[in-house]
Task: inverse folding
């Protein structure tokens, strides 16, 4: 008679089948883990209690410029990052192991011989099967491009805000600088129109001189406005060239001679001979005229202005303009080239001055790798030192 089989035998798994199933599960899990470690673009890492790498993924190895992730085993952040960053990472990981709490952060990574990078990082305590903390593990995503984009946006916004503030201040300067000479001009023309028939000749001369002074101030302001506009629109011809400093200085003195003579101001010029500089001729002319005009305004009648030029280490030339005028406080000197600061004041005989000429001079010089410095003391006059390249850049 045939033997009857137990129905339960249908669900019974032989030991060999169980081993095969476990092997397949293990193989599949190993495949998933290897795929994660070999192809995930983010950085994955495991560390022991001393923050030494136990394992890193392939992307992290590439970031460290390693051929094989195995090369990182036993190393620490101190081997790949600067002391500052590695020390901070070590402190973070020690705190994670002490508290058992994970850390989410965006961190700036500084390197030994490479540009800074940024990472979005998650770090967690690494536990064994009994729940004991035996190290840390984490994942980092390189966000350097995003950070740079954010910084560029912030920089552009800052530039935009500064540009808006600069334009507001510029229009304020323009309004004040035009209002005063135009008001004087209008008032004198009304006066001379109404009373010219009964005015003494001397008074007519004084009024017409006042009209000329106002017209000259307006003309110089318009010249500066034109230069400023070209500079801001980047249409100004600023190509540097080798020029004879004596010629530029002499021409600039001639342009302000009349206003200096009107105040009986003596201009002394120490001839620099054949000294040359490397700068755009028109730019230097504008700068010199603005500074000399400024010196005449703030020098008392009968005062003097000294002009000299010299070389400095064969690399730079200096043009020094020193006046015997009213001078400036340290506070005013520090504000002199800032468009958002008020520096307006009248000259020794009520001449108008809004400060646009000096602002323009500074930016024009910087356009040709030059600079301007000021030394002054109240009541003792001022010195403007113009530094320009002595030769063409190599």
Result:
């Amino acid at each position: 008679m045939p033997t009857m089989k137990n129905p339960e035998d249908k669900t019974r798994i032989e030991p060999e089948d169980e081993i095969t199933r476990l092997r397949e599960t293990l193989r599949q899990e190993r495949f998933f883990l290897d795929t994660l470690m070999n192809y995930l673009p983010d950085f994955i890492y495991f560390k022991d209690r001393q923050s030494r790498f136990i394992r890193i993924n392939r992307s992290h190895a590439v970031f460290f410029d390693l051929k094989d992730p195995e090369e990182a085993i036993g190393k620490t952040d101190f081997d790949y990052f600067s002391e500052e960053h590695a020390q901070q990472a070590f402190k973070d990981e020690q705190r994670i192991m002490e508290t058992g709490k994970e850390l989410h952060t965006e961190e700036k990574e500084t390197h030994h011989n490479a540009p800074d990078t940024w990472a979005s990082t998650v770090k967690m305590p690494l536990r064994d099967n009994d729940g004991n903390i035996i190290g840390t593990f984490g994942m980092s995503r390189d966000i350097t491009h995003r950070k740079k984009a954010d910084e560029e946006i912030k920089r552009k916004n800052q530039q935009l805000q500064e540009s808006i503030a600069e334009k507001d201040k510029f229009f304020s300067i323009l309004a004040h600088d035009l209002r005063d000479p135009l008001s004087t001009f209008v008032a004198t023309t009304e006066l001379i129109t109404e009373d010219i028939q009964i005015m003494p000749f001397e008074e007519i001369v004084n009024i017409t001189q006042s009209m000329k002074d106002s017209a000259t101030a307006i003309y110089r302001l318009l010249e500066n406005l034109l230069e400023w506009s070209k500079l801001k629109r980047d249409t100004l011809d600023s190509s540097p060239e080798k020029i004879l400093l004596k010629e530029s200085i002499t021409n600039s003195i001639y342009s302000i001679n009349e206003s200096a003579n009107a105040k009986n101001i003596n201009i002394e010029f120490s001839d620099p001979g054949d000294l040359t500089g490397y700068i755009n001729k028109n730019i230097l002319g504008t700068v010199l005229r603005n500074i000399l005009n400024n010196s005449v305004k703030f020098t008392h009648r009968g005062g003097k202005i000294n002009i000299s030029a010299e070389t400095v280490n064969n690399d730079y030339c200096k043009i020094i303009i020193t006046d015997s005028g009213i001078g400036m406080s340290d506070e005013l000197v520090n504000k002199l080239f800032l468009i958002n600061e008020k520096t307006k004041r009248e000259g020794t005989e009520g001449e108008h001055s809004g400060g646009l000429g000096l602002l323009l001079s500074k930016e024009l010089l910087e356009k040709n790798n030059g600079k301007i410095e000021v030394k002054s003391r109240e009541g003792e006059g001022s010195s403007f030192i113009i530094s320009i390249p002595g030769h063409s850049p190599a």
